């Protein structure tokens, strides 16, 4: 079915064009050069101090004497300290301990202490005590006890209470801390609630990450020609992000034609045909560790959409624009759900489950489900200075999928888009 529709597009002699609006997002200094951030160092330092104070504010609210962080995203938020982030996501070998009324300590991977030089929030650098099986083997138990003894001594020496929030910890580590009299709290909730409210400086950093992402998207658009593979197009975003100071992509969500439906297939060596829809989700962790989470869909060969593609794309735009328009600070998640765009029944089996989600240094709380999936007991309030992503995925039986997503700052007046990469003309 798709092939017949694509062939009819070619036979009709549909307009072939390069969208000059998208070309404007390429680096004006030249395609052979990275983008250089104009953000002053003072802005970054103010963001660093704000973020650490946000964590300590939440610790005081929770009557929490210490916060133990293993998640590299939370460590980056607290200290702007980054070291082998992807590797340490699955090899927890560096961690941070923040005292509510005491020092903030980074426990660094041996030999890498210098990566923390000059970071204003760190009071002390210590060598980490790794007790994961990969490095400890048969010595896990004594190393684990030495680790727990050190955490206990620091907390006791600084007069901290025995309530410690932990974001990620293996069961044996949790057991050792409770054996020493600690009450463990959910440090991931504490951190994500702290991270949910952005400072003006954070928004400035996020705008730059989005600028880099949109330059990568413009590169993707330029190479979206028949005969390219999905991986070739996806690589353009990696390239722009890496050379402009970014970090990684969380997913590989770029597919074309029949591979767009069902969604969540990863990019492959599929060779894209003329007129097929290319749909993607950037999920990009860019400069300064912030996330640019944007989705777009367009046709291969830059040809006009066929009738079905236009119908689906128009529905996706309706969902995005409607949900942007109803967001207000102070409204509950339930109130948003009641006012949100109601997805037609024929699209529901192919829907994206999220209507909104928070974004900062990664996708974060809150994750507000689409109305067919929303639980009325899911509580929370949309607040000013949150950054929320508004999502849409539209498809039906036998069709391609249209994926659109925009990133917005919540202001006193509503949702202000942070991205501006053009939608398609249909």
3D architecture notes:
The protein is an alpha+beta fold and 426 residues long. 36% of the residues lie in helices and 19% in strands. It is built from 13 helices and 17 strands. It has helices spanning 2-11, 20-23, 41-61, 72-79, 85-90, 133-136, 140-157, 171-179, 187-195, 200-222, 230-243, 307-326, 333-339, and strands spanning 66-69, 95-99, 104-108, 124-127, 163-166, 183-186, 248-249, 254-256, 277-281, 284-285, 291-292, 295-299, 354-359, 363-369, 387-394, 402-411, 414-417. Helix 3 (41-61) crosses helix 9. The two termini are 21 Å apart. The model is unreliable at 1-13 (pLDDT under 50). Keywords: Plasmid.
Low-confidence stretches: 1-13
Reading the helices and strands in chain order gives: HHHEHHEEEHHEHEHHHEEEEEEHHEEEEE
Helical amount: 25-40%
> Which structural class do you get from the secondary structure elements?
alpha+beta
User: Which sequence of strands runs across the widest sheet?
Assistant: 4-3-2-1-5-6
Mean pLDDT over all positions: 95
Q: What amount of the residues lies in strands?
A: 15-25%
Tell me the number of helical segments per DSSP (H or I, 4 or more residues long): 13
Protein name: Peptidase M24
Pfam families: Peptidase_M24 (PF00557)
Keywords: Plasmid
Domain Peptidase M24: 204-411
Question: How would the blueprint of this fold be written?
Answer:
Blueprint: H1 2-11, H2 20-23, H3 41-61, E1 66-69, H4 72-79, H5 85-90, E2 95-99, E3 104-108, E4 124-127, H6 133-136, H7 140-157, E5 163-166, H8 171-179, E6 183-186, H9 187-195, H10 200-222, H11 230-243, E7 248-249, E8 254-256, E9 277-281, E10 284-285, E11 291-292, E12 295-299, H12 307-326, H13 333-339, E13 354-359, E14 363-369, E15 387-394, E16 402-411, E17 414-417
Parallel strand pairs: 1-5, 3-4, 5-6
Antiparallel strand pairs: 1-2, 2-3, 7-10, 8-9, 9-12, 10-11, 13-14, 13-15, 15-16, 16-17
Helix pairs in contact: 3-9, 3-10, 7-8, 10-11
